[in-house]
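Re: that backbone. Tokens:
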């Protein structure tokens, strides 16, 4: 699997955080806060894959374009960045040695931590 950082998603997440569109939730909340498959499908139907991709920090270039399997490491609910989503993405990217994704997520997580102080 050739997963690399989705630069547009990283920029989108930064702009959302700067605009105050984030949730400072707990690590274990992601299972409840992440979009369901039905929500993902509805978002794609309404907004298309280009907008859907902006919510995923990783891109698997071995997967076909315009498929959900191409996009990895979700970080929000299609409205706001969730700290729990960033923490889950950071952990998984580190486990899989996707260092560019891990570093970008760590930066986003740091942005949220700075806002909490």
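Recovered sequence:
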């Amino acid at each position: 699997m050739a997963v690399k950082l989705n630069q547009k998603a990283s920029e989108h997440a930064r702009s959302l955080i700067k605009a105050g569109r984030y949730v400072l939730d707990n690590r274990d909340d992601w299972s409840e806060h992440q979009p369901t498959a039905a929500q993902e499908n509805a978002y794609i139907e309404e907004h298309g894959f280009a907008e859907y991709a902006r919510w995923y920090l990783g891109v698997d270039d071995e997967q076909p374009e315009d498929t959900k399997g191409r996009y990895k490491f979700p970080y929000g609910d299609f409205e706001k960045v969730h700290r729990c989503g960033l923490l889950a993405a950071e952990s998984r990217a580190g486990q899989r040695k996707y260092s560019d994704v891990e570093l970008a997520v760590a930066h986003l997580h740091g942005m949220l931590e700075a806002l909490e102080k």
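Residues 3-116 form one domain. DSSP finds six helices and five strands in the chain.
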